[in-house]
């Protein structure tokens, strides 16, 4: 009767692997990381080339475009400063995105900008002449900024970075057993905010 | 499974994190239940939305800015890294670290972790470390406010944290426990114990279980070893911060006035970790 959910799950499993994982293979990443640990400037540039896009995307969704570039700079400076501590127990991307998530959460806590985000406004104020994608982007960003920052991070780590529940729990310092129920909560809250902002399901 | 059970497991199912048996039960339920199936499809549309709406490219000058700062740090490792903040301990720190190693009879290796001069990185812990020596009461008040701190007795701390804190098992000789607080940090719940010396000066000990060390902003830091164990020394405007990992705990002693005090407190923490986990 309701077969489409099965297709959605199957597509999602394939999609998560195709979209969320960075294109670089692990052995190449390991070589670049080792180069950074040895102090190679070229390796630092390569590391930035490999991961700045995915990190920037996470930061834009976490804090908004206005501050994302500054935080991207901060993330990579912190990564280069601490890369000697990376010992390869976790995937490098998980470690990197943990740094990015913590910096984003720290920034939100400090600036409390989520309370006065420029995109968190009434849907009637949203410009309509710039195309549907732009509107969706604005509505999504507004909805994301209405949920708790830690829940937002959890949702984005799952959806954008393809992190497992174990990795999410490690990144955010919460019990693994609570990740599913928190994701239920954030997904339901996001749907409510999106609908309130005019999203057509 | 009934609707309630399926709803509770819906994300776990959707994300492929459910066990095979449970997955089959949810499969069977959503094939027949319009409500649960609708919710699942909503999750899929949300996923599709967030993953497919493009994000603009990062500004092209970010790498140039990162590279320039890295260059600056390479050539000015121990010079002041933030405007308006003097670093009188920077050079002393290098020398003192060497003395510590000699005293501990340990091998030394340096790694200067880059200072992270950035307007965003001055964290609450950084601010606490900065103001501890000149305004300990204010530093504590602001920290507690920033992290929704709750005063807690040593006996109740273990229950609230889920582990017996190393920093509360026994007081360091010559100090008395002045306060203990639970801090709700972004990473996790953390313990802060404040100890007072006989001269009224205080040191704070932070403790958590994650594998990520405590961060104190953009201060020059030396990675070293003490008593054969890795630790980090960070300068904090006239005081020292000593960070280390002991078993599964990350610990940071903030406010030591000398290398001798830092070494003594670190030794005390290591001894505490070997004690019976009851406060004595």
Q: Please count the beta strands of chain A (DSSP E, at least 2 residues each).
A: 0
Rounded to the nearest angstrom, the radius of gyration of chain B is 24 Å
Q: Separation of termini of chain A? A: 20 Å
Quaternary status: heterodimer
User: Major sheet of chain B: order of its strands?
Assistant: 1-6-7-8-9-5-4-3-2
Unreliable runs of chain B? 75-88, 102-122
Q: What form of chain A results from the Cα inertia axes? A: globular
Q: Number of helix segments of chain B?
A: 10
Amount of helix of chain B: 40-55%
Percentage of residues in DSSP E strands of chain A: under 5%
Write down the overall mean pLDDT of chain A: 80
Model regions low in confidence, pLDDT < 50 over at least 5 residues of chain A:
13-22, 116-130
Return the string of H and E elements of chain A: HHHHHHHHH
Describe the structure.
The complex is a heterodimer of chains A (201) and B (280). With 201 residues, chain A is an all-alpha fold. Helix content of chain A is 70%, strand content 0%. Chain A has helices spanning 4-20, 26-37, 41-63, 65-82, 92-111, 132-144, 149-159, 165-172, 179-196. The longest helix of chain A has 23 residues, at 41-63. The model of chain A is unreliable at 13-22 and 116-130 (pLDDT under 50). Chain B is an alpha+beta fold. Helices cover 41% and strands 21% of the residues of chain B. Chain B has 10 helices and 9 strands. Chain B has helices spanning 3-8, 10-14, 20-32, 34-52, 62-75, 90-104, 124-131, 136-146, 154-161, 259-273, and strands spanning 112-113, 150-151, 175-184, 189-197, 202-208, 221-226, 229-236, 239-246, 249-256. Chain B has a 9-stranded antiparallel sheet, with helices on both faces. In chain B, a hairpin with a 2-residue loop joins strand 7 and strand 8. Mean pLDDT of chain B is 79; it is low at 75-88 and 102-122. The chains are: A mainly alpha (201), B alpha+beta (280). At the A-B interface, helix 1, helix 3, helix 4, helix 5 and helix 6 of A face helix 2, helix 3, helix 4 and helix 5 of B.
